Amino acid sequence: MSLDPVQVMSGQVKELKVGPSSNGDSRGPWEEKEDQDNVGLTTKPKPVTGRRTRKVEGGVFFPKPENAVTVAVSSRVLFRTEREQKVFEQDGVEEYLRFQIEHENEPFTPGPAFPFVKALEAVNCRLRELYPQSEELFDIVLVTYNHAHVGIRLINTINHHNLFIERFCMTGGSSPIGYLKAWQTNLYLSADADKVREALSEGIASATMFTSEKVTEVSESQLRVAFDGDAVLFSDESERIFKAHGLDKFFEHERDNEDTLLDHGPLKGFLEALGKLQKKFYAKGQRLDCPIRTYLVTARSAASSGIRALKTLRAWGLEIDEALFLAGAPKGPMLEKIRPHIYFDDQMFHVEGAAEMGTVAAHVPYGIAQKHNAKQNISVRK
């Protein structure tokens, strides 16, 4: 199976508990659809009754970027915009803008990042209960190449889905990377692989997300984030040994260097940010009821190469709630049981395998595996 950020992967659909599609509906702005588009939905859409705000003493609460864990998401991964993208590609930018303005009262339907963002907001609610004045919480920024004319439709959609997203970057086609740095972004999710690579080159944790028709239902009360190890949390040092010399040399190298820490990978900082928020719950005696849970899902073997990874995490002062060493077994079935809101991997082979099982998986285009895949169009286990 080949994935493309603007293509839809086929599969049996299992709907998330979100509002139905209104794209292309000719009825009133927020009316419920009574036709076949609603078949199989688990909840009925709710009309917008007003803007939602988060308030603390002194007024509406907006954290400073330097205090928050900032997650930047593009409109193409937060919402489903395939129809609009097709208009842009076939008819050009002017027709695209006209189309968006004509349909600005029709909300976009949720995209692959939507459940992740909802989970971030659920964690924020718990944090505000425990720390009413704290600015250490998730801050979501919508980053889009769109022209400002499209902003009205995006705002209408955010209000329709009752999201708390007040910060926008609408770049009108220019690169958003400078803005990401200004926001002190901890994670950037986009459908544009080139912009993800650009962000990674600037030291911003980033990943490419894909739209899939098969999506597993995920927790509404606990944020679950799963990471691959090499070239995601860690550097691709060990992966280079494997690619160049094979599995036996890889095991030998890991045994010889089990007390030598692995260098950091592109998403180490995001795991650190998650850990920082987890500790705020631990401090209130809620370790066993923490709304954030992290997973290491790696094709490494536990006895042969796992100890170095665990020692590295310990030395960094990072806790992983669950570690799965699969020794080359497929990751998809394990991820299906975990049901993470997002899984990060540097190899498209694993991203595709996870997506086939209904997991929202994001590709981190970093390390030696990218050159290997480019040459052979295949992926070999780590």
Summarize the structure.
The protein is an alpha/beta fold. The chain has helices at residues 75-78, 82-91, 93-102, 114-130, 151-160, 177-182, 193-201, 237-245, 247-256, 268-282, 302-316, 332-338, 348-356, 368-376, and strands at 8-9, 55-56, 59-60, 69-74, 79-80, 109-110, 138-144, 167-170, 187-190, 206-209, 211-212, 223-227, 292-298, 322-325, 342-345, 361-363.
Provide the descriptors you would attach to this structure in a database record.
single chain; 382 residues; alpha/beta; 10-stranded mixed sheet; two-stranded parallel ribbon; 16 strands; globular; disordered N terminus; disordered C terminus
Uncertain stretches of 5 or more adjacent residues:
1-59, 374-382
How many runs of DSSP E, i.e. beta strands? 16
Largest sheet: 10 strands, mixed
- By secondary-structure content and strand pairing, the structural class works out as alpha/beta
Strand content: 15-25%
Mean pLDDT: 83
What is the helical fraction, as a range of percent?
A: 25-40%
Radius of gyration: 21 Å
Please list the strands of the largest sheet in the order they lie side by side: 8-7-4-9-10-16-15-12-13-14
SSE pattern = EEEEHEHHEHEHEHEHEEEHHHEHEHEHEH
Distance between the termini: 20 Å
* Number of distinct helices: 14
Explain what the structure shows.
This protein has 382 residues and is of the alpha/beta class. The chain is built from 14 helices and 16 strands. It has helices spanning 75-78, 82-91, 93-102, 114-130, 151-160, 177-182, 193-201, 237-245, 247-256, 268-282, 302-316, 332-338, 348-356, 368-376, and strands at 8-9, 55-56, 59-60, 69-74, 79-80, 109-110, 138-144, 167-170, 187-190, 206-209, 211-212, 223-227, 292-298, 322-325, 342-345, 361-363. β13, α11 (302-316) and β14 form a beta-alpha-beta unit. α8 packs antiparallel against α9 and α9 crosses α11. The protein starts with 7 loop residues before the first strand and ends in a 6-residue tail after the last helix. Mean pLDDT is 83; it is low at 1-59 and 374-382.
